[in-house]
Amino acid sequence: MALISLEDLDGLDDEQLDDDITDNPEPMDEDDRLLSHWQAVASTHQVSVPPDMTGPIQEMTRNSQQREPLPFAPVSRHEKMGEELYEERVYAAGHWACVTRGEDLYEQSISMGFMKLMRFICKENSAGKYLGMTVPVVSNIHMMEDGTTFKKDVQTSFFLPADFQTNPPQPHDSDITIVYREPIRVVTRTFLGTTTEETVTRQISLLWEILGATDDLCRDNYMVAVYENPGVPRRRNEIWFIRRNL
Description:
With 246 residues, the protein is of the alpha+beta class. It has one domain: Regulatory factor, effector binding domain (Multidrug-efflux Transporter 1 Regulator Bmrr, Chain A). Helices cover 25% and strands 33% of the residues. The chain contains five helices and eleven strands. The chain has a nine-stranded antiparallel sheet with strand order 2-3-9-11-10-6-7-4-8, covered by helices on one side. The protein has a two-stranded parallel sheet with strand order 1-5. Strand 6 and strand 7 form a beta hairpin. It is globular. The two termini are 30 Å apart.
């Protein structure tokens, strides 16, 4: 998956961390071991994790079980022969922390964006404290005129926790903006595995095949919601189609 998720840190046992640092014969403390693990994961996305990410990684690790789900209201659920085809939901209005990156690869854009958001979450904000995390992390993709190619800029966002919705802390990083979004209604389908431009494009095509032609859904803008650890082989993701009207 493109996103270097906070859940990379879940379930890291000594054996897994040792596998990531076998090339380094020097003794390492726990902080170094965690950073080395993240660097190993990031290298598969052609992204490097700088040493100054050690603090945010520690903070995320300490608070890894405290995550708020994104609030939504279910609208409908559609199945065929016991298999869920898609679900429709309305997500609540609220403040999001957003960062846009335009790297060479989709994976790089999302990874670099999320590392910036991690720093914001972990005390690089006007409140001066750890803010907490919500899931899923959502990436917004815009399409070229051909309807199949991603534009370079990808926006990665997370919904601010409930305690900070009324008075959102401001980021120290000027690349991050706090945006108030109105409610959105989405048609969503779950898929398992990696999220690359190739796999996301395939999921977009598949959901269009299921839904058929309709003018009620946007074709130039999609969202990808990521819930789980990139180390999980069949991790949960969703593709979101956005309804033009609630």
